[in-house]
Design a protein that fits this description.
By secondary structure, the chain is mainly alpha-helical. It has 17 helices and no strands. Helix 1 packs antiparallel against helix 2 (about 45-65), helix 3 (about 70-85) packs parallel to helix 12 and helix 13 runs antiparallel to helix 15. The model is unreliable at about 1-5 (pLDDT under 50).
Length: about 450
């Protein structure tokens, strides 16, 4: 097969930035909503509502997070279909992910009672907090189909480099949620239920807005070509890709969860310091997401077009920008890390403890950038079996590091183990990268 041109024009720095910057801005809006939710219920003057909203939100966010594979898998498959100029498959993929989102959401609604019981058993609170948290969750769970469908819609839009539309959805949902929070809780005095209703309405409106932004897909009957939508081979591929991503993501989540649990063994002060410092990693991830998403779209399109040259250029350009971003973050953390610690933690002992381990936050971005960027490249290529397997290797390396480094170096050893897992993932994925270019050349 002869090589085709990139699907959407030449690959330039401007094109990369056009994809990445809206995602970075979108990510910046996420913490604002959490702060407003907490601040609004905090005006009620009681501790229980704050704890209930926090607990309920964490439980539902963790449940919905498991379906994040729908976004990642959709980007890779849609961008490849776009690169191959297969408009029928692009439309069919939107139909499939919408059906998956609605189906998974409906299943969560049906299973809500045992799910909530299990979640509150794992993360118990006081009787009052648990009661209010249940009130919150039984309202919000009814927007599960919308929340999960948004993952698929977002992935479909990113694959087409329409990240400004993704930003529009995020800003709309968070902005409406904030306004409804203020009205329902402070204006109508609906309390915790008001916060839940605000999020319920915001998520359904976000899904509706997402569908409107995808409206061109419904202008042609391709979206309801049921023979294609339910094609067994394509469905099996979709299930395989998403299952690999889910397994990989669960291992990654176990690493981060175990990090917090292991840190608790060093006492409350060290645990609090670690929690503060983890925010540095989240900032890094939010900043890099835009360029990883750009890699997903550009690599997928080039692979679909069987254009190895464009694929390499997309991988190099996006990773180059990722490196620029993390170098800037390293400087910012080195010179402003102390101020950021003091801003997030007011307890002097926590501030002092966090400064002891700040060095790991200074070096983490440059050591971790390769794992983040290769994730984007491999998602775009739907090389998800390699993602799963390399994550498994990194998972084993992490636990080997935990068992050897923590006894010798304490909390420093814990941070070393976490960063070693990033490095291991970057190296192992890097070793598998040539296979992606070989696929683009039609050699495998």
């Amino acid at each position: 097969m002869t090589a085709a041109a990139p699907a959407r024009g030449p690959l330039t720095h401007g094109r990369v930035l056009k994809i990445a910057i809206p995602i970075v801005i979108s990510n910046a809006t996420v913490p604002i909503l959490g702060a407003v939710d907490t601040g609004v219920v905090g005006q009620l003057g009681e501790a229980a509502p704050i704890g209930a909203v926090g607990l309920g939100a964490i439980i539902l966010t963790s449940i919905y997070w498991m379906f994040g594979f729908l976004r990642m898998g959709t980007v890779g498959m849609t961008s490849q279909a776009l690169g191959a100029s297969d408009e029928g498959e692009v439309a069919a993929l939107l139909t499939r992910v919408l059906m998956a989102g609605l189906g998974f959401g409906a299943l969560l609604i049906l299973l809500q009672l045992p799910i909530f019981a299990l979640a509150l058993w794992i993360a118990p609170g006081s009787a009052e907090v648990e009661s209010l948290a249940r009130d919150y969750m039984v309202i919000r769970i009814w927007s599960a189909p919308a929340a999960i469908a948004i993952y698929g819609i977002t992935g479909w839009l990113i694959a087409q480099e329409r990240t400004r539309a993704v930003l529009f959805i995020q800003v709309w949902m968070n902005g409406l949620n904030i306004l409804l929070d203020l009205w329902f809780v402070l204006g109508l005095d609906w309390g915790v239920e008001g916060v839940a209703i605000a999020t319920f309405l915001a998520e359904w409106s976000g899904a509706a807005l997402g569908l409107w932004l995808c409206r061109e897909a419904f202008d042609h009957p391709r979206w309801r070509d049921w023979a294609r939508v339910f094609d067994v081979v394509r469905l099996k591929n979709m299930v395989s890709v998403n299952t690999d991503i889910l397994i990989r993501s669960l291992m990654l989540q176990i690493i981060f969860t175990s990090f917090l649990f292991l840190g608790a063994d060093f006492g409350d002060v060290t645990l609090a310091a670690n929690q503060v410092l983890l925010q540095f990693l989240y900032i890094t991830a939010y900043a890099l997401d835009g360029f990883a998403f750009a890699a997903e779209a550009l690599v997928g399109q080039a692979l679909g077009a069987r254009n190895a040259k464009a694929l390499r250029r997309g991988a190099v350009l996006t990773t180059g920008w990722g490196v620029v971003i993390v170098l800037g973050l390293m400087v910012a953390f080195a010179f402003g890390g102390g101020w950021l610690i003091d801003t997030m933690a007011k307890a002097p002992e926590v501030q002092a403890e966090a400064r002891v381990y700040l060095i790991w936050m200074v070096i983490a971005p440059i050591l971790g950038v390769w794992s983040w960027m290769f994730d984007g490249i491999f998602i775009g290529a739907t090389q998800t079996r390699d993602m799963r397997n390399m994550m498994a290797i990194s998972f084993v390396i992490y636990w080997a590091a935990v068992l050897t480094l923590i006894p010798a170096f304490g909390n420093h050893g814990l941070w070393m183990a976490l960063i070693i897992s990033f490095v291991a993932r970057g190296i192992t994925l890097g070793l598998r990268y040539p296979r992606i270019e070989a696929r683009a050349r039609g050699e495998v």
